[in-house]
Amino acid sequence: MMDYLISPDLSLKENVCQFFDTYQCIYTKEHSLKVANESLKLAHRFGVDPQKCYQAALLHDISAVISHNQMMEIALQNAWTIGPSEKSIHSCCIKEFPPYLDVIEEGMKISLAYSAYLFLKEQLQHKRILYPHQWLKEAYEDLSREEKKI
C-alpha cells in the first residue's frame, strides 16, 4: 500500500473520491457517495446532525482499498489487539439490495433505534456475521431491551 496524504485544500468528499480513484475503487466510491446522500435524508428525518452522518457515510467503506492480509499485517506491526471478528474473513460490498431492506425500512417508521435493532437481529439470526464484535453484541442487547418497550 502506498502512502496517501489528504489535501487540506479539498473537502472531505473530494479527498475521499480522490482516494478511491487513486486505488481504482470506483464502485466503492460511487457506493459511498450514494450512501452519503441517503444519510442526509435520514439525518433530517430523524433529527440528527446531517454533517456527521454525511462524513461517516463517506468514510464507512474507506478500508476497501486494503486487503484483509494487509490489515492484519498493519495491526500486528502496531501491536494492536486483534479479536476474532477482525481475524475473520473481511467483508466486501455487495452489488444488490439486501433481502432485509424492507424490514429495516418498516422499522424506520417506528424509530431509528428500532430499525437498527431489526438490522442487527437479521444479521445475527441469519449468521451473516461470522464473528460478531463484542461491541456489536452489546449494542444488540441494549437495543433488544429497548425493543421490548415498543
List keywords for this structure.
globular; single chain; 8 helices; 61% helix; 150 residues; mainly alpha
Characterise this structure.
This protein has 150 residues and is mostly helical. The chain folds into two domains: 65 residues, no CATH class; 55 residues, no CATH class. Helices cover 61% and strands 0% of the residues. The chain is built from eight helices and no strands. Helix 2 runs antiparallel to helix 3. The longest helix is centred in the N-terminal third of the chain and has 21 residues. The protein starts with 11 loop residues before the first helix and ends with a helix. 11% of the residues are buried. The mean pLDDT is 86.
Summarize the helices and strands and which ones pair or pack.
Layout: H1 12-22, H2 26-46, H3 50-59, H4 68-77, H5 84-87, H6 101-108, H7 112-125, H8 134-147
Quick gist of this model?
With 150 residues, the chain is an all-alpha fold. It folds into 2 domains: 1-65, no CATH class; 96-150, no CATH class. Helix content is 61%, strand content 0%.
Could you give the order of the helices and strands?
A: HHHHHHHH
Class based on secondary structure composition and strand pairing: mainly alpha
Q: Give the rounded overall mean pLDDT.
A: 86
* Largest sheet composition: none
> How many helices?
8
DSSP strand tally: 0
Stretches where pLDDT is under 50 for at least 5 consecutive residues are none
How much is the radius of gyration in Å?
17 Å
Range of helix content: 55-70%
Instruction: Give the overall form.
Output: globular
Number of domains: 2
Could you tell me how far the N terminus lies from the C terminus, measured between alpha carbons in angstroms?
47 Å
Fraction of residues in β-strands: under 5%
